[in-house]
Amino acid sequence: MRVLALDGGGIRGLIPALVLAEIERRTGRRVHELVDLIAGTSTGAILACGLARPAPVAAEAIARIYEQEGPRIFDRSLAKRVASADGWLDERYASTGLAAVLRRHLGDARLADARPPVVLTAYDIERRRALLLGPEDDVSMIEAAHASSAAPTYFEPVRVNGAPLVDGGVFATNPAMLAYARTGERPELLLSLGTGKRTRPLRYEDVRGWGRLEWAQPILDVVFDGTADAVDLELTALIGDAYVRLQTPLQEASDDLDDAGPGNLAALRREAERLIAARDAQIDRVCAILTGPRAGS
């Protein structure tokens, strides 16, 4: 079993898209031909659907979609800024831009159509439970990817089959552990791709006097980072070198989920290039496993 897990991270999904483009270049094959399961959270859910839809999209083409469509998704009109008090009284962004992009690139495909199968994370805010949306669910890729990407404070919840869902990153920024549980076996390879690690510290001197208002936005980032780090530790202990985590500290790009300005998009591309150069040998090993004979065959 060869499994791919894709982190959440908003516009920073450009980084794993470019890493996958490099893997496609080195192997001469598309991602959907190389793995048996793709798990995705938030922006990783969008990536997963694009890679596994009935007419799969090449990873480099998905990277270009991030660069071209990102500014449309994260576009705040003056009216929206005023109505939301710049995000304090309502979500920062209208969902229309995200929904339009998903319709344009995912069409009428359903999760059951995905090849290989995909599992996407979401959280039901009424029933207060974590969900995995997969082939057994009668859900369109548009609905599933939209729900998985509905990050609190950024986008409003999305109703899917009557259930109000938000971004699965609230419990699984890195969905690799859920992918491992889903397979029911030790994988030959579980490749986990991050979207860039935050490096801005929350200094004690600054936060020691914070209350609810000041913590409202930073706590979301802390939860996302903490859950991803926990999964990394757990899988390294459980399956050793069958788990490969490709993640990079953000040296120059913003760690904001929604900075889709041209300067930051260019910086994210450079971050991906640095990651690929730094982990060259490990990526070669990953490519060799993905294109080699199946274990036990």
Overall structural class, as computed from helix and strand content, comes to alpha/beta
Order of helices and strands: EHHEHHHHEEHEEHHEHHHEHH
Alpha carbon gyration radius = 18 Å
Intertermini distance: 12 Å
The share of residues in extended strands comes to 5-15%
Helix content: 40-55%
Quickly count the helices: 14
Spans of at least 5 consecutive residues with low confidence: 78-85
What is the arithmetic mean of pLDDT? 92
Let me know the number of strands: 8
Q: What shape does the CA trace take? A: globular
Description:
There is one protein chain. This protein is α/β, with parallel strands linked by helices and 297 residues long. The chain is built from 14 helices and eight strands. It has helices at 14-27, 31-34, 43-52, 59-73, 78-83, 96-106, 141-148, 169-172, 176-183, 204-207, 212-215, 218-239, 262-278, 280-291; strands at 2-6, 37-40, 118-124, 129-133, 158-160, 163-167, 189-193, 243-246. Strands 1, 2, 3, 4, 5, 6, 7 and 8 form an eight-stranded mixed sheet that branches. Strand 5 (158-160) and strand 6 form a beta hairpin. Helix 1 (14-27) runs antiparallel to helix 4 and helix 1 packs across helix 13 (262-278). The longest helix has 22 residues, at 218-239. 43% of the residues are buried.
